[in-house]
């Protein structure tokens, strides 16, 4: 299970200082072919997966990008840790010297960023160009889509500081909930409950809990009228059993904490339009992508924290 991070006041000050340093690096290595938010999105994605995978080192500096040895030094290079630019180029490697010290060191953030910037500039600055560059580097569609989402958010909000969250039911409305993670479900075969049920009356507003992009929206036989939102931390937020959506929102829209999504209902457990098979409530679930797989984790601790904040 991977919990959502709760930052204290001192943690926030530290994170803000680190974010400022990150922005300095992104801006330094951006150009007319490589917007800063493309570099920032890749770096954020790699930071996200390093935080949740045991096979990767934990991030310990402002830049988290790790460039694979075969891409860095060249697939046929007998020295996978080669730092000599001429030798690297001879064997088809891509590493560059970004800080002017005469070597291409995979541990130096300037060398890493210049190498990544060079890769992106080969394709171009447009969205489709960026998508092609990501595909040829990562070769995984879900990874490409996640990084594209992060870049879209950074471009829209013009910042990388998008870590605020709110409770999915606004202040002033009655509701109740408890930890329902792992309980059995009674419809659709044997399965466990991957989320938290927040019980409220029909028509109570449901809002976005984070910054993100609406990835999916519509009917699901289990979740009824549901919305799925992908944020900048590789987390997918799932809002199910809605009565109806807020007018005007659609797939691809960018949202922020508190954006109205729809209203509590009891839809689901059947063909499109089925409703009333259970008391009205919001099913809220969260899923984490680690660059290889995606899994659900318990949102209850995060919900309690966001509830206290409001």
UniProtKB/TrEMBL annotation:
The keyword Lyase does not apply. Keywords: Signal. Residues 192-290 form the M23ase beta-sheet core domain. Pfam families: Peptidase_M23. SUPFAM superfamilies: Duplicated hybrid motif (SSF51261), Lysozyme-like (SSF53955). This is M23 family metallopeptidase. It comes from Sporosarcina highlanderae. The lineage of its organism: Bacteria, Bacillati, Bacillota, Bacilli, Bacillales.
């Amino acid at each position: 299970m991977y919990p959502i991070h709760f930052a204290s006041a001192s943690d926030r000050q530290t994170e803000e200082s680190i974010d400022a340093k990150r922005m300095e690096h992104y801006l330094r290595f951006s150009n007319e072919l490589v917007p800063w938010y493309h570099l920032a999105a890749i770096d954020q994605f790699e930071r996200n997966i390093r935080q949740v995978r045991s096979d990767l080192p934990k991030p310990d500096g402002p830049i988290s990008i790790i460039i694979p040895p075969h891409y860095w030094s060249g697939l046929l290079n007998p020295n996978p840790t080669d730092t000599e630019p001429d030798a690297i180029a001879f064997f088809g490697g891509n590493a560059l010297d970004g800080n002017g010290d005469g070597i291409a060191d995979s541990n130096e953030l300037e060398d890493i960023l210049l190498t990544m910037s060079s890769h992106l500039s080969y394709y171009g600055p447009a969205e489709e160009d960026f998508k092609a560059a990501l595909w040829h580097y990562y070769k995984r569609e879900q990874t490409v889509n996640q990084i594209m989402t992060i870049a879209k958010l950074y471009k829209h909000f013009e910042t990388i500081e998008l870590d605020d969250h709110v409770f999915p039911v606004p202040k002033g409305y009655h509701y109740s909930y408890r930890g329902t993670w792992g309980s059995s479900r009674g419809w659709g075969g044997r399965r466990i409950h991957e989320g938290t049920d927040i019980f409220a009356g029909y028509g109570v507003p449901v809002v976005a809990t984070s910054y993100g992009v609406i990835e999916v929206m519509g009917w699901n036989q289990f979740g009824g009228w549901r919305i799925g939102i992908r944020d900048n931390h590789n987390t997918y937020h799932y809002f199910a059993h809605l009565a109806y959506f807020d007018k005007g929102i659609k797939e691809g829209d960018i949202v922020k904490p508190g954006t109205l999504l729809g209203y509590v209902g009891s839809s689901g457990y059947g063909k499109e339009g089925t409703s009333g098979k259970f008391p009205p409530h919001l099913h809220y679930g969260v899923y984490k992508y680690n660059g290889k797989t995606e899994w659900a984790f318990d949102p209850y601790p995060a919900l309690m924290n966001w509830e206290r904040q409001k």
